[in-house]
Amino acid sequence: MELTDNVPQEKPVVLSSEIKAKTQDNKELSEKIPVVKIQAWWRGTLVRRALLHAALRAWIIQCWWRLMLPKILEKRRKSILDSFQQEQWAVVRVQSWIRMWLIRRHYCRLLKAVRTIQSHWRCHLCNSRGVIKGHYRITASQMHLELEILLGSGPCIVSECIPLPIKH
C-alpha cells in the first residue's frame, strides 16, 4: 500500500478580507431583500392585473359569442328552410303542371271521342229522320227560297218566292 502522505495537501486559506467581503455582501443582500421583495410583489401585481384584464376580455368575447351563436345558427336554419321550401314549391309546381298536361291530354282525347260519337249519332239521326237543306236569294223586293227535304221515302223540293214589304 502506498501512502499519500508524500503529497502535500492544500487546505483552503480564508483571508480576513474575504470574510469581510462576504459579510458585506450578505449585509447588502439583507438590506436589498425588502427592495427585491417589493419589486417582485409589484411585478407580480402587474402580471396578475394583465392576466385579469386578458381573462375579462376573453370572458366578454365568450359571452358575446354565446349570444351571437344562436342567432347565427337560427339565421342559417331559416335560410336552409327557405331554400328547402322553395325547392319543394318548385317540385309541386312542376308536378301540378305535368298532372294538368296529362289530364288535359286525356280530356282532349275524350272530347275527340265524344265528338266522333256525336257526329256519327247525328248523322244516323239525320238519315233516319230526314235532312233539310236549302238556300235563299234576296232581291230588291222579294226573297227566293229553295228547300230540299230529304226523308226516308224520297226528296221533297220546295221553291217559293216571298215578296218583301218595302216601306215608302
Textual characterization of the structure:
The protein has 168 residues and is an alpha+beta fold. It has two domains: 15-129; 130-168. It is built from one helix and three strands; from the N terminus they run αβββ. A three-stranded antiparallel beta sheet has the order 1-2-3. A hairpin with a 3-residue loop joins strand 1 and strand 2 (142-150). The radius of gyration is 62 Å and the shape is rod-shaped. The model has no long low-confidence stretch (mean pLDDT 82).
Helix and strand layout, with pairings?
Elements lengths: L15 H114 L1 E8 L3 E9 L4 E9 L5
Antiparallel strand pairs: 1-2, 2-3
What is Rg? Answer: 62 Å
Terminal CA distance: 181 Å
Give the DSSP E fraction (strand runs of 2 or more residues): 15-25%
Give the topology string: H per helix, E per strand. Answer: HEEE
Category from helices, strands and their pairing: alpha+beta
Overall pLDDT metric: 82
Unreliable spans are none
Helix content: 55-70%
Morphology: rod-shaped
What strand order characterises the main sheet? 1-2-3
Please describe the biggest sheet, giving its number of strands, its sense, and whether it closes into a barrel.
3 strands, antiparallel
**Domain unit count:** 2
Number of contiguous helices: 1
- How many strands appear in the DSSP assignment? 3
